[in-house]
Design goal:
- This protein is an alpha+beta fold.
- 34% of the residues lie in helices and 24% in strands.
- It has helices at residues 19-29, 33-45, 80-102, 125-132, 151-165, 190-196, 249-260, 280-289, 298-307, 314-323, and strands spanning 5-12, 16-17, 52-53, 111-116, 140-145, 171-178, 201-209, 215-224, 232-237, 240-245, 272-275, 330-338, 342-350.
- The chain has a 9-stranded mixed beta sheet, with helices on both faces. Strands 2-3 form a two-stranded antiparallel sheet.
- α4 links the parallel β4 and β5.
- The two termini are 18 Å apart.
Length: 351
């Protein structure tokens, strides 16, 4: 019987570490000192040290121009069209870097699955990757779009189903997210600023085949937490994509997992956990809701600390950290959350 395997993963981030600069910017921008103290406290508690973006922080003072290229100017933030014009070249460049890090023979790829929710174009990123990475023109292409942070699970689910249907298939799975393209000029709204504080840019490329090495992909499951559809939303507006991330999300996840989490677990209790690093409060909610040990989410917390939340690419960075740890062996469970409020999971095994 055919088994789908996640053989290996390549990752890439842009060159500009923006996290410290953004904290300084937020502190200087918020006029009310009570709000500024709250922002400072939450920034310290975020457990993020680095986030990367396609934009280089601008020179001080950043009272008018935020980035070195002048893309973000106070009072004149760019239109969605201008942001999408940036998405097209930068998303392709970052995807190609991740594919290069994967070090796979692209001429043998039979299927391409691309996941992204931070930009659109046609011919799409799938077509551009196919041509630029040297994939055959006969490559079957699928885009998983606008599904948010859990899109990585869906992309791997598609790849797994392809391999189960055709053992000769070699599927390239690419996740690319440029969250920095969607900064909004809402600098006095502390919750909004704190949500901007979470997100960074990143890309991953993964090879899924029937060749038995890497991580064996198991059962995929999906659930929706009741009465939570309005807690995470993502809408296209005239000045970029507008995200709403409710502060109720961690508590809702924690309570739901405490009641329903056991139904998600594979027959063997997971020794490995690959949880989407959506934020420290999300990881705390999973740890508390499933009664996990303090170090169970170490791979996710390390990715959050070093990269922030890269939307759909984040889970792939966590899985890559597991693959790079020779001691990380045994059964595992991957989990991600997104609009709905949807819970996507899959079991896996690292022999």
């Amino acid at each position: 019987m055919t088994q789908a395997w996640l053989n290996r993963i390549g990752t890439a981030v842009p060159p500009h570490d923006i996290h410290a600069a953004f904290i300084d910017f937020g502190r200087d921008t918020i006029a009310d000192w009570h709000k500024r103290l709250l922002f400072d406290r939450m920034a310290r508690l975020a457990d993020i040290e680095h986030r990367y973006a396609i934009f280089e922080p601008g020179p001080l003072p950043r009272d008018t121009i935020l980035d070195a290229a002048g893309f973000y100017r106070r009072g004149a933030f760019p239109s969605t069209a201008a942001r999408m014009a940036q998405y097209e070249p930068h998303a392709l460049h970052l995807a190609l870097r991740a594919i290069q890090a994967l070090d796979a023979d692209t001429s043998r790829i039979t299927h391409l699955v691309v996941a992204s929710c931070t930009g659109f174009t046609a011919p799409g990123l799938d077509f551009q990757v196919m041509r630029a990475a040297g994939l055959p023109d006969a490559t079957h292409r699928t885009i998983v779009g606008f599904m948010g942070c859990f899109a990585a699970v869906n992309a791997l689910k598609v790849a797994s189903q392809i391999v189960l249907a055709d053992a000769a298939a070699r599927v390239l799975v690419v996740n690319v997210e440029l969250s920095s393209l969607h900064l909004q000029e809402e600098f006095q709204d502390v919750p909004k600023m704190l949500s901007f504080l979470l997100f960074g840019d990143g890309a991953s490329a993964a090879l899924v085949t029937a060749e038995p090495h890497g991580i064996a992909l198991g059962r995929f499951q999906v659930a929706v937490i009741p009465r939570s559809a309005d807690l995470i939303t993502w809408h296209i507006a005239d000045t970029g994509f507008l995200m709403h991330l409710s502060g109720q999300v961690p508590g809702r996840i924690r309570r739901w997992l405490a009641e329903h989490g056991p139904t998600l677990l594979p027959p063997q209790h997971p020794a490995l956990w690959a949880v989407h690093a959506g934020g420290r409060s999300i990881l705390d909610a999973v740890q508390q809701g499933l009664y996990l040990s303090p170090d169970a989410l170490r791979f996710s917390r390390a990715v959050l600390r070093n990269h922030g939340n890269m939307s759909s690419a984040t889970l792939m960075f966590v899985l890559n950290a597991i693959l790079n740890d020779e001691d990380a062996r045994g059964p595992g469970l991957a989990m991600a959350f997104g609009p709905g409020l949807t819970v996507e999971t899959f079991a896996f095994e690292r022999p």
